[in-house]
Every structure is written in structure tokens, then in C-alpha cells.
Amino acid sequence: MRVDDVAAPKIEQEEDVILRVTATAICGSDLHIYNGFFPQLKPLVMGHEFMGIVEEVGRGVTKLAKGDRVVVPFPIACGSCFFCQHDLPGHCEHSNPEKYGPEGGLMKDKGGGLFGYTDLYGGYSGGQAQYVRVPYANFGPRKISSELADDQVLFLTDIFPTGYSAVDWAGIKGGETVAVFGCGPVGLMAMKSAWLRGAARVIGVDLQNYRLEMARRSARAETFNLAEEDAVEAIRELTDGRGADVCIDAVGMEADRTLLDRVSNVIHAQMGSIKALELSISAVRRGGVVSVVGVYGLPYDNFPLGQIFDKGIALFFGQAPVQKHIDALIKHVEQGDIQLDDIITHRLPLAEAPHGYAIFNKKEDNCVKVVLQP
């Protein structure tokens, strides 16, 4: 990871805008590229969590004007295709024409385009930059009130809608026990969203004490450290032996791995681990729901299909449909129903992005969330 001077973005399509970035962030998903789980062979401007001021508009842009302050959802979506019309912008049929397809997988038949997320997802330059081109600007970007600071709204681009989607998929109506595996930024937003939707009990599980402390302080969660106790049994004890109504995997394939896990990966041509998913499946009650917003990229051996069948678990996977929820979530922020910026631990100039990636990746300096300022 390095900081370079690159050519300024230009209007390429009539619905493009050029945005001057005022705030951007490093996402846990960026680490999947950083660590080689998603391949990118040539230089790419990273970043899919960003906001800023509109500097230039294409001739087909009708909903924005120069000077508008906006947040930008991370899926690049046209707004008019079958999937966009069915509130599935991450599966847009038009934004990733070279790699798009119905099959799904790591190297072919991907979904719609994403900002700064490898050539597999369209090769779009991302927002960890001073300026960025935003396609389909009539559908994606949302105007933001000048009364709200960047820090208060930046996470509407990804991690808040992602955490909220995990809760929404589970159909939480109020009174449930929700356990979240992974107390990183997305996990914290899932916990906050669970309270927003009326959960009676929220539990956070992680291996890092500083992240568990953040879950207690920022998300008012009860917490368990997997390195120190059997979190699955602890969750069952809190729920009369049943397990949580909803479990959320907010970790994905970069869960901590044992030596045996690494050997198994080599044997089965796998990358990463499904440990967080396995724990979620064990900790959820029979007839419960497991929502997976941690990223997975490859097939995995020993997927616990029999356990899922026997317990009658409903599983939900995928990228958040940000455009579906963002307007309602903006209102929650405006009304003070939820605070987003209390998870920020590091604010750095864009020039220090490599340092931000390093400490976030290595879990150094109690780093939970890095915001970069161009």
C-alpha cells in the first residue's frame, strides 16, 4: 500500500459526477485485498467508504448539482435493471459488464461493480483519494445536511447499512437475543442496529479485549472473549440452554486460524476460515437465523450442512443493499437515534494511509476504525 499521484478523474458517462473527497475510511473488506484474499495485479485506487462535495456533473445528472455534499453507497448500481428494481443494487446487471454473470464465484461471474474493489468488481477507482468519479449519480449518492459533521454520516456509505442489513434479514421485531461474532466496525454497527430494531439482549464475541471493550462502551453489549471462555456455551447459559435467536457473522474468511486450519487450507485449496460461521451456527437456537455479512470468497470443506438442517436454521448471506436502506438510516442519524462516530479510534491524513492499513490489519494501537482526510 502506498500513496501516489495519479491522473485526476474525468466525466466518462453522462450520469457521472466528480466528487472532492472530504472524508474516507479503511474498511475491513479492504484488508481482504491488502492480504491477498481478493487478487489485484495492477495498481488500483482503494476505498469504498467515502463522502465529499460535488465538483462537476455530467449532462445527464438531474438530482445533484455542483456544491452538493453527499455520501456515496459502496455498491455501484444503475437503478434501472431487474436487480436494482428489486432492491438488490449489489447485483446490478450493468455496472460490471466484463465480469458479471449468474453463476457467482471468486474469479468469474461476479455481481455488480464496487468502488476500489479489484478488477473483479469493475476496476473502479475508489475514494481513498482527493477526487473520485461516481457513476450513476442519479441513483447512488445522497445529499447530507450541513448540520451533520462528516464523522457523523461517513459510515452511512457501508458499515452502518451492512450491520443494519444483517439485523433486517433476520426479521427482528423486538425482544430477541442477538449475538454478534466479531466486534470490528461492522459487528459494532450490527449491535447498534439490533438495539435500534428492539432487541432485548445484545452479545458481542471476539478475541481482542480492546474490541470487546469498544462493544461494551459503544454498543452496550454483553461480551465474551473466545480466547478465555467457551462463548457458545456462555450464550446458551444466558438463554435457558437454547442459544441466541439471531447470530451474526461479522468476521468472514479472515478469522484467526490454527495451524491445523492452515494445513487444511493447503489440502483443500482454500483461503481463510469459516470458524466464525461455524460458531454462529452452533450458538444460534433451533429455528433461529444466522446472518452473514463477513466476506467469504471460496468454497470450504466440511461446511456444516447437516447441523444447519437438523437445527432448522435460516441463513442469509451477502453484501448490504445500501440504496434500499440509506434514506431511512439517514433519518435515524438526523434524529439522534444512533451514534456512528464513537467507534473511530484513528484520524489520519491521506498521506499516512499505509500506516493506517498496517495498524488496522495487525490490530495494533487498539485500532478499531481509521478515518482518512485528504
TrEMBL record:
Xref: Pfam families: ADH_N, ADH_zinc_N
Coiled-coil positions: none
Stretches assigned to the Alcohol dehydrogenase-like N-terminal domain: 14-138
Domain annotation Alcohol dehydrogenase-like C-terminal: ranges: 185-255
CDD domains according to UniProt: FDH_like_1
UniProt keyword annotation of Transport present: no
Necessary cofactors: Zn(2+)
InterPro entries per the UniProt record, alphabetical: ADH-like_C, ADH-like_N, ADH_Zn_CS, GroES-like_sf, NAD(P)-bd_dom_sf
Entry keyword set: Metal-binding, Oxidoreductase, Zinc
UniProt-recorded Gene Ontology molecular function terms: oxidoreductase activity; zinc ion binding
Family, as annotated: Belongs to the zinc-containing alcohol dehydrogenase family.
Protein name: Threonine dehydrogenase-like Zn-dependent dehydrogenase
Organism: Roseimicrobium gellanilyticum
